[in-house]
Design goal:
Length: 289
């Protein structure tokens, strides 16, 4: 499975080996309406991709990876690491990493990160944004109401594995025919393709940095669009969470009865959810085929 260096914590990666086999083969187009970095289509066999997300920042990063020479992306990142004085575990495996574990990284990188953030907020560029995503908390892309990037530093750096993901992701993007859109999911121009439609919207009952603008109106509008696709005999798949953390998405549960619900199994590596007294989210893929 391909991975992306733009992945925030809690993304679809761990579910891909269950989702991808449920997709139909040989589709003319793969339309990913809520794409983020496009982890899902990246691992599908479609060559022609329609990639949409209303977050212009993530789209600028995806385009950067598609259009810039891979070596240049890595070289630019290395220049930023040197200029700002970030840790670089790929080249310098310091004793402190071992002794103080990863916490040390955030202590050391705090100052370089804050300087980088200040420079980016003064003069934004996609190269600096990528560095912020790499060193920032949970690899989030988040802005405050004045549109200033406001994520704190995290206990990570540009590891050997992240470099490998950068190369794989950039090369995979270059091998696909992609049409980009940065529009709202209700925009009609997204629905003119004779292909397979995949939806991974913000979830009504879970929290994520991109879910603030998602409410019942959006949920209902989306379900109407899916019904319309079904009437046109177009295949769709919808990722979502129907229950979890003592909440239940009744709108979705009721609607999904007319389609097929595939229950997915996310393997939880730690038992934190028990300590925090929350229930495991029931993640599903709902299909009309
Ligand atoms: C659950 S994430 C998608 C994650 C992606 N499938 C992955 O595995 O990396 C939901 C995405 O929907 C986008 N989004 C939120 N509201 C939207 C809207 N009204 N129209 C289009 N995209 C939207 C967010 O920017 C976010 O990237």
């Amino acid at each position: 499975m391909f991975n992306s260096p733009l992945n925030y914590t809690g993304n679809k990666r761990k579910l891909l080996n269950q989702i991808i086999p449920l997709f139909p083969n040989n589709q003319n187009f793969f339309v990913d309406v809520f794409a983020w970095s496009g982890l899902v289509w990246l691992n599908s066999d479609s060559k022609k991709i329609i990639l949409n997300d209303n977050n212009e920042y993530i789209l600028s990063l995806v385009k950067y990876f598609k259009e810039t020479d891979t070596e240049k992306i890595i070289d630019t990142m290395d220049e930023i690491i040197i200029k700002y004085g970030f840790t670089d575990s790929h080249r310098n495996w310091l004793k402190s990493y071992k002794e103080e574990k990863h916490e040390w990284l955030s202590k050391y990188n705090k100052q370089p990160f804050n300087k980088l953030k200040k420079d980016y907020n003064k003069q934004p560029s996609v190269e600096l944004l990528f560095a912020l995503v790499v060193y920032g908390f949970n690899h989030y892309i988040r802005f405050n109401s004045a549109w200033l990037y406001n994520v704190p530093v995290w206990k990570v750096d540009y590891t050997t594995s992240l470099r490998k993901k950068t190369i794989e992701y950039s090369e995979a993007l270059k091998s696909k025919d992609i049409t980009f859109f940065d529009t709202d999911f209700r925009d009609k121009k997204l629905y003119v393709y004779d292909g397979f439609y995949y939806f991974d919207p913000p979830y009504l009952i879970t929290q994520a940095p991109y879910s603030a603008t998602w409410g019942e109106t959006e949920e209902k509008d989306l379900l109407k669009i899916l019904d319309k696709l079904d009437k046109k005999w177009l295949k769709f798949a919808l990722s979502n969470v129907i229950e979890g953390n003592w909440k239940s998405n009744e709108i979705l549960k009721k609607w999904a009865k007319k389609y097929k619900i595939h229950y997915l199994n996310r393997r939880y590596l730690n038992a934190n959810y028990r300590k925090k007294n929350i229930t495991i989210a029931k993640e599903v893929l709902i299909t009309n085929y």
